[in-house]
Each structure stands twice: as C-alpha cells, then as structure tokens.
Amino acid sequence: MSYDKHILWACTAALLTGWVLAFDNGHCSGIVTRPLCNWTCMQLTLQWPGSFCIGLNNKTICKIPETVRNWTIHGLWPMHTGYCCNCWPVFHSHLQEIEPELTQLWPSLIKGKHFFFFWREEWIKHGTCAGSEETMGSPLLYFQAAVKLRKLFDIDSVLESSGIKTSCDVSYKHDDIRGALTPLFGNNFDLQCVTDREGREAWIQLKIHLFRNQTLGCTKQEQEEVLNTLAWFNSPGHPCPKNTTIFYVPINYENPHEPCN
Ligand SMILES: *[C@@H]1O[C@H](CO)[C@@H](O)[C@H](O)[C@H]1NC(C)=O
Ligand SMILES: *[C@@H]1O[C@H](CO)[C@@H](O)[C@H](O)[C@H]1NC(C)=O
Ligand SMILES: *[C@@H]1O[C@H](CO)[C@@H](O)[C@H](O)[C@H]1NC(C)=O
Ligand SMILES: *[C@@H]1O[C@H](CO)[C@@H](O)[C@H](O)[C@H]1NC(C)=O
Ligand SMILES: *[C@@H]1O[C@H](CO)[C@@H](O)[C@H](O)[C@H]1NC(C)=O
C-alpha cells in the first residue's frame, strides 16, 4: 500500500469511527483522536543557515536569502508513531496573517523552492499531527505556535553574549556550546552537526524538546524511542560528537555550500 493509500485508509477509518474534528466542504479536516496522532512530546528544530548547505547531497540547490541572518525554523515536530493526515489541506491564504514573520523566521533555503511549499510540506508531515492538540488545531495556530517558540528562545543573542561567535578559525568544545544554551533550555536540547569536506564538525541544528503544552521538557528516552521508528525524522546531520571541537561557521551568501573556503 502506498503512503497515500494509508492516509486515505486512515481517514476513512477515522470517518467511520467518528474520530474527525470537522469537515470543510466534505474534506476530512483533522483527526483528533488516538491512536492516529498519539504523541506526548515534540521538538522544535532550528537550523543554522551557515552550515545548512554543507549537509545537502546536491550542493548546487542551496540559496541563503540575504535577509536571513539568524537561526531559522526547520520544523515543529510531534513525536508520533502513527500517520499524519494528508487530507487536512493548508492554503497560502491561511497563513497570510503571519507571512512576514514566517518569511523571516522559516525561510526555504532551497533554490527555487517557494517558501509556501516548504511550509506546506512541514504542515503535511508534522502539522497535521500537531493539530490534534487544541492550541495548534489549525494551520494558522500551528505556524503561530512555532513562531512564538522561536521568538521566545533568543539563541542568537545568548550565543553572542556567551562569546560563541561564528568563525572559520575558532572552534568550540561541545560543553561550551551546551553551557551557553543551558540557561535558556536547561538540558532539554540536542546539538546536531554535519561533517564538512575537510572532516570538520559544523553545527547545523538545534533540537529543542517540548511537551504537548509547548513548555520545555519531555525526556530524551521517550523522544528517541519514537525517533528510531521514524525514517522521516532523519534530517541531515548527526549528534555533535563530544570528542572533537565544533565549528559555528559564518553564513556565506556567495558560496553557501563551502562557507569557509
Ligand atoms: C498513546 O501513547 C501512550 C504513551 O506512549 C500509550 O501509553 C498509550 O497506550 C497510547 N494509546 C494508544 C491508543 O495507542
Ligand atoms: C543538482 O541540482 C541541479 C539543479 O536542480 C540539477 O541540475 C543537477 O542535475 C543536480 N545534480 C545532481 C548530482 O543530482
Ligand atoms: C537576529 O537576532 C538578533 C538577536 O535576537 C536580533 O536583534 C536581530 O534583529 C535579528 N536579525 C534578523 C535579520 O532576524
Ligand atoms: C505542561 O505539561 C507538563 C507535562 O504534562 C506538565 O508537567 C506541566 O506542568 C505543564 N505546564 C503547563 C504550564 O501547563
Ligand atoms: C570520535 O568518536 C567517534 C565515534 O565514537 C569516532 O568515529 C571518531 O573517529 C572520534 N574522533 C576523534 C577526533 O577522536
């Protein structure tokens, strides 16, 4: 069975058993009940534009808009084991109200990929599941939640004031970066790195662990159990190693895939 057929089946089953929140002109617009979207933890994943292109297989497809200068949102991901519902559509007009913020904080860094396509992809993969939580129960609410969280965590300033600055020469110990972020997140985060052509470790993502109610927490073990079962969470990168130093590379708009060459 294809993924789409699974979705269709899931929606049909949901309809038959009355697990559907609402209908929009006959479309199933949201499954609210377990087991389809049974999740307890979520992750806000932020990405560093400076190293994002190092992690891509096809390095020619990357482009960092000049307006992007800070950490950006990759996604807000409930840790779920069921299927999300592909039958809950998002339209560009749904997001009009927060489009300026999304454009700044949640840009696509892939050349030629319309920002909305990126947002829609994230909504289909993750948002439809998040929507089983009332506070994120519509496309607009989901994207607003992510934006609110991103703004709540001012990592750009915190890093700067801890002396963790972008550089191609200086690298940092894992513990120094963790230490700088601990006042913001406690222990509720993971660092992800990519390895560049010279074998250096470059910091690429920050995964922030949250409960359903958008507060920090949810144990790592719980998250990892679910993660191991889900291929689509395998975004670029690996946990930053502790036995070597980590580069926090500058954003190179001209040559984004080799920021230090
Ligand atoms: C939902 O998840 C919780 C926690 O992982 C689990 O205990 C429960 O059995 C699950 N419920 C269903 C219906 O899958
Ligand atoms: C990389 O992407 C470009 C632009 O989409 C394409 O023309 C090229 O064939 C791709 N290269 C590889 C190796 O896939
Ligand atoms: C980047 O983050 C800093 C610190 O929070 C903020 O002052 C600045 O306005 C942000 N710049 C952009 C372009 O988002
Ligand atoms: C959020 O959820 C967690 C776990 O269920 C709970 O411990 C915490 O008190 C909740 N926080 C708020 C502000 O509701
Ligand atoms: C660090 O540890 C990893 C795996 O444990 C190993 O593959 C790698 O070679 C080590 N790197 C250094 C610089 O020691």
TrEMBL record:
Residues 1-22 form the signal peptide. It comes from the Eukaryota. Gene3D superfamilies: Ribonuclease T2-like. It is found in: Lysosome lumen. PROSITE patterns: RNASE_T2_1 (PS00530). Keywords: Signal. This is Uncharacterized protein. It comes from Phoxinus phoxinus.
